[in-house]
Amino acid sequence: MYHEILLFMVGLVAYILTLLGNIFIILVVTLEPQLHSPMFKFLQNFSFLEVCYTTTIVPKMLSNLLAKRKSISFSGCMAQLYCFVFLGATECYLLAVMAYDRFLAVCQPLQYGVIMTDESYVRLAMGSWVTGVFTGFLPCLMISRLHFCSYNLIDHFFCDISPLLKLSCSDTTVTEAVVFMLSLLVLSSCFLLTLLSYLLIIHTILKIPSASGKRVTFSTCSSHLLVVTIYYGAMIFLYVRPTYNLSSELNKAVSVLYTVVTPLLNPVIYSLRNKAFKKAVKKIVFRHHRLHSL
Question: Which of 104, 191, 240, 285 has the smallest count of CB within 10 Å of its CB?
């Protein structure tokens, strides 16, 4: 019981910090006109997604840590699974789009304004969300049609694909193959596009003559690349595999990386290390202080 209370406290603090950090980004980008560029609008989308993503998993996990009877209805489980797949896929698409946006800004600065217009931003952002919505349908539909005829104990802290497939008494061969192919297509393609964008950015940075400019830009991009690698690495490790016989404890540990750790780190990596964002925060604070002084 004591270790569950400890896990509850740690999870609660991480969840609150994740919400505060991402909502803070959304508010700052909304309030500061200078941040109404595609780069920060993508970041605003990403922060909203992270709020939804963690809220899909963490509150139910926290309530179960303190509950004597840890349960979830079948419809609730399928809803959680769909939101998890839909939001996880959308995050992959948005990360690839954000990396492409940074590639254009760093590698093709003179053409950036022509290529990345407000119309382009809307198409890319909407495309990421809509594609994510449709990505979630097939695996959730197939899993919802499986039979669960024994003692339905999910050995996980949320309704994930692997423990549900283990729990089913149906033949899951076709479902596993479809999930594997879909995961391979989405995760591998998005990761390769994101990685390629950052490698081209780093290649361009190495050509910068100024040592200080090179150091600052490389520091920012390497931080982004670290978080992206953690997220994609965990997701690919769990889902791009032909069979789902991973040990439950390892599954849970790796799942914490992309459901709790990366959403917590993202506000720090993508905004608080950004000079333009920090400058915007100071301007908002100054305006607020001046209004109160009048």
Answer: 285
